What we know:
The structure holds 2 protein chains of 2 kinds. Chain A is mostly beta strands. Chain A has strands at residues 3-7, 10-13, 19-26, 32-38, 44-52, 55-58, 65-70, 73-78, 87-94, 101-102, 106-110. In chain B, β8 and β9 form a beta hairpin. Classes of the chains: A mainly beta, B mainly beta. The interface between A and B is medium-sized, with 26 and 24 residues.
Amino acid sequence: SQTIHQWPATLVQPVGSPLSLECTVEGTSNPNLYWYRQAAGRGLQLLFYSVGIGQISSEVPQNLSASRPQDRQFILSSKKLLLSDSGFYLCAWSESDYGYTFGSGTRLTVV
Amino acid sequence: AQSVTQPDIHITVSEGASLELRCNYSYGATPYLFWYVQSPGQGLQLLLKYFSGDTLVQGIKGFEAEFKRSQSSFNLRKPSVHWSDAAEYFCAVGPYNQGGKLIFGQGTELSVKP
Lengths: 111, 114
């Protein structure tokens, strides 16, 4: 069966520090992968999506970047975090017409 | 423009009462429609989805939703709410193809009174 792993679960980072969040999917091949951010009291904002290795589309200009070095690995990064980068980050994948399957999320607090 | 509107930011119902969460969408093509639930600090779990066919769809945890094309709505219902249903609920719409991007509403937070 397919599973999606996302880590770490929580992270507290100082302003100006780098960031790396990882998401991996098991039990499927060539999935579409997505990074969403959920700020406090807000809905889900699509940050990046990827339809294949090395193929990244950015939905909103920001301080973040994404990479897909392997078929089932999706990484969210930043060189220098801002206070406004705080939020709940969710990775998701889709392979067919069943909608998305979400990871358990990473709570990022930038201090 | 494609969009999803959940008019109610926060709803409080008594345990055992019925529930209806509203969702309206604007979409230029035949949509896939979804409802997700999110418990605090967790990811999103799929409750139900509509692709085609019967406009009343059944989901997990006793939820159902009805697709009304004429009203561009996909409201979520439950006849009797349990305290464990307290969570945030998201409606989403996507393209009628595999793996397309989903557009989410802003969410409705449900509180349940004992």
